[in-house]
Amino acid sequence: MKAGGRFTRPRRFLHDRFSAEGYLGLHLTIGVLVILFAGWSFSEIAESLRPGLPPLDQRVTNEFHQHARPGLTSIARALTFFGSAGFLFAGSIAAGLFLAWRQTWDRLLALALTMLGGSLLNIALKHFSIGNGQSWRIRW
User: Fold this and answer.
1) Which of 3, 22, 26, 72 is surrounded by the fewest CB atoms within 10 Å?
2) What residues pair up with 7 in beta bridges, in sequence order?
3) Domain boundary assignment for the chain
C-alpha cells in the first residue's frame, strides 16, 4: 500500500477540481455547474410550453409562413444541409484525418469527444422532448 493512503487519487482529483491553482480546476467545475443549471432551467421552461406553441412563437411562425417564397425556402433548405448529420460526420472524419496526419493527438481527442458528446446530447434531447406521440417539429 502506498504511503499516501487508500483514497489518494480521488482526494487529489477533488482538490484539483475545487482549487483555483489547478489546471482548469475551479473554472471547469463552475462551468459544468452553470451548464447543468442552464440545462435544467431550459427543461423546466420547455416542459411548461409543451401543449402548443407559445403566442410569440406562433406569431413569428405565421410571419415567416406569410412571407415565404419558393426561392427563399430553397436557400434556407440548402443552408440547413451544413447542420445535417451526414455533413457533420463527413466534416468530422476529414478533420480527424487531418489532425491524425499532423499528429496533434490532443486536438483529435478533443474533436472526437466533442462530436460524441454532441451526438449523445442530441439523442438525449430528442428522447426527452418528444412524449406521448407529440413532436416539437412544425409541419407545414
Assistant:
1) 3
2) none
3) 8-54, 71-131
What pLDDT is recorded for position 7?
76
**Site of grid cell 489547478:** 22
Paired strand residues for 131:
134
Q: How far apart are CA 34 and CA 25, in angstroms?
A: 14
In 3-state terms, what secondary structure has residue 98? helix
The residues, ordered by sequence, that sit 6+ positions from 22 with a Cβ below 8 Å of its Cβ are: 15, 16
Provide the residue type at 39 as one letter.
Answer: G
Which residue is listed with cell 482549487? 19
Closest Cα partner for 35 from 27, 24, 46, 45? 27
Contact predicate 136/129, CB 8 Å = yes
The single-letter code of the amino acid at 18 is F
Q: Count CB atoms within 10 A of the CB of residue 29.
A: 16
Question: Residue 128 — very low, low, confident or very high, per pLDDT cuts 50/70/90?
Answer: low
Ranges of H-type helices in the chain: 8-17, 25-48, 55-66, 70-80, 85-101, 105-129
Mean per-residue pLDDT, 132-139: 48
What residue type is assigned to position 104 of the chain? Answer: T
